[in-house]
Design brief:
alpha+beta; five-stranded antiparallel β-sheet; SH3 type barrels; about 170 residues; 2 helices; flat; single chain
Length: about 170
């Protein structure tokens, strides 16, 4: 009995998720249809192509729109992307972006005004960071026994270049 439930549980979950998704899609379709049915002459709309226009006439499956220049265009109802509030439609047609001059963000003309001047640098910026290996930097003492000039030559030294040296089991470069 338990194995049958375990076997059916994924299928039950899958069906539940599918039902939720179709319900959500139907809600969106219903809202879009209500929005399109709320159009009446004098309403401002935006088409799915981005055209802003005023509704002149509503037909069964089509809408006659008048653009800002006075031309009339016939669109399918499905081509209407949004029905706009009168204030929003007027704001868009007048080119008002919704900002007052005082509220507008201040944008500098060049990048130099975004950063401080050279005089304002922290003292920590003055320090140099040494990227050399231990013993290679000037003034840094080398560990004893690592200076190849001081070591006696045995004649069996590896004559490979330092870049070809390999270490580890995988033969990776250090």
């Amino acid at each position: 009995m338990s194995s049958a439930v375990e076997l059916l549980l994924p299928f039950i979950l899958l069906i539940g998720v599918m039902l939720l998704m179709t319900r959500s899609a139907k809600n969106k379709q219903r809202q879009a249809m209500e929005m399109r049915n709320s159009m009446e002459p004098g309403t401002g709309v935006r088409t799915i192509g981005g055209l802003y226009a005023m509704v002149v006439e509503v037909r069964e499956d089509a809408v006659l729109l008048e653009s800002e220049d006075g031309s009339q265009l016939l669109f399918a109802k499905n081509a209407i992307g949004a029905v706009l509030e009168p204030e929003e439609y007027e704001r868009i047609l007048n080119g008002d972006d919704g900002y007052d001059a005082e509220d507008a963000p201040v944008v500098p003309d060049d990048a130099s005004s975004l950063t401080g001047t050279d005089d304002e640098r922290d003292a920590s910026d003055e320090r140099r960071i040494g990227l050399e290996k231990d013993g290679d930097a000037e003034g840094t003492p080398k560990p004893e026994g690592t200076d190849s000039q001081d070591a006696p030559s045995t004649g069996t030294e590896d004559t490979k270049s330092p870049g070809s040296a390999r270490d580890g089991e995988n033969g990776s470069k250090p």
